[in-house]
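Q: For a teaching session next week I want to show students how multiple molecules come together into a single three-dimensional assembly. I've collected the sequence lines for a complex. Could you give me the predicted structure tokens for the whole thing so I can convert them for display?
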Amino acid sequence: MSKFIDERFDGYAPYVPGEQPKERKYIKLNTNESPFPPSAFALKLAREAAGDSGLYPDPEYTSLISVAAEKFKLKKENFLFTNGSDEALNYAFAAYCGQKKRAVFADVTYGFYGVFADFYGAEKKIIPLRDDFGIKAEDYFSAGGTVFIANPNAPTGKILSVNEIKGIIENNLENVVVIDEAYIDFGGKSVLPLVNDYDNLIVVRTFSKSRSLAGARIGFAAANEQLISDLKRIKYSLNPYNMSNVGAAAAIGALIDDEYFTANCKKIIENRNYMTEKLRSFGFTVLDSFANFVFAKYNGLSGKAVYEGLKERGVLVRFFDKPRISEFVRITVGSDEECKALIAAANEVVKELI
Ligand SMILES: *Cc1c(COP(=O)(O)O)cnc(C)c1O
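A: Of course. Below is the structure for the complete assembly, covering every listed component.
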């Protein structure tokens, strides 16, 4: 850092993305991307849109929102599209979690929540997961600040029911509740249809996982009009043209190409079940996952040892050097071949180290 940087960034720890190594070809099961390419229709629309790149895009992304409103059976006023869902989360923290405000989230969850809270100077109220790594809805009642819950949670893959989330929303009428549904397409039940029933619910979605568009950076927030206007106030203060015209066009294609999306989600769920069973068959403990990754540990081995053993064999996974979860690795569910390679490598690692 230079001497010029604002002193509030002393001791501040930015988000650390999963590694994207270039030196060797790895089987990449570390950042929860889709193993499948973007929809061909999404790519076609993106290529067509590229010709308009000389002009600024429509900052309201009206065409995209019209398609989304129809797809998700909501009003156009319920949407704000963003540069990845990280940007939607960023705007929510900016709007509701300034200094002297509180951000409430689990001890084991998406790492960015703590980073944004620190960035905006909010107080962090961190609620431990229960012993089974689940979130207990009651722990979030009257939370005293803006609640952020990833559902399914990352990196555990565990899920809350719609009724449990309703309980959290209804017991926080003085707080905004943000439900981050990055992984909802892999088996959970969404609360998106509830956004017009509550004035304190924001649902955040991404196209990075189930819609194969991580590189295009597409996400959205859905909420009632008042909350959306809060978030728009932030967007128009920071980044009015927050998505590229090419990305927005790809997003339209990805939404329309439902058949491809549905087939890919189905395949990921099958492969997740395969991976879970196989890992368990040679002694891994694997949490039941509702996401496109599994969270697994092997008794007697650290997550780091498993990670390193797999990396030597050309398979990248993620481990977290953090209390409670240092024994675990998070493994993205890949294609058939990738899952087979992971299973073979994991089997070798265990044989070598145990
Ligand atoms: C991947 C992920 C995101 C961010 O996704 P982008 O849309 O790529 O910014 C947000 N929340 C959770 C829980 C995630 O795992």
